[in-house]
Amino acid sequence: MSANAAFWLYNGPNMVLSILLYTLLGRYLLSLVFRPQSELVIWRVFCQVTDPVLHAVQAITPRIVAPGLVMIFAVFWLIILRICWLLLAVMYGFLPQVGAQ
Predict the structure, then answer these.
(1) Which residue ranges make up each domain of the chain?
(2) pTM for the whole thing?
């Protein structure tokens, strides 16, 4: 496998997970400033990007958990997914090597 393919095989999914993670954190910070039904474009974009993640986490989270805590669980699960992806890449050898040609 070429170095470029190994680079994108690992970093592509890792970037998607990190973008989702940081977007969730951004949505949380924006929720401190904007009301939930705000019509501002930045708020709507953050909600459209993060709502699928929150709905997926909400589906596997027990109903007893308060709705406000679902975002914390989502951040936790995305961090766990990134760690698992790293371990998988190390186990199967498609982690890009430093100085690989």
Answers:
(1) 8-92
(2) 0.84
Distance of CA 10 to the CA centre of its chain: 15
State how far the Cα of 4 lies from the Cα of 27, in Å rounded to an integer: 33
Model confidence pLDDT, tens digit, residues 45-101: 999 999 999 999 999 988 898 888 999 999 999 999 999 999 999 898 878 777 655
Select from 81, 95, 91, 86 the least CA-distant residue to 19.
81
4 residue type, one letter: N
The structure tokens listed for 53 are 């993640």
DSSP state of 100: -
Between CA 52 and CA 60, with CA 55 as vertex, the angle to 5 degrees is 130
> How is 65-92 classified by DSSP, letter by letter?
S-GGGHHHHHHHHHHHHHHHHHHHHHHH
Q: What is the pLDDT of residues 37-46, one digit of tens each?
A: 889 999 999 9
Q: Which letter does DSSP use for residue 37 in this model?
A: T
Residue 47 structure tokens? 């909600």
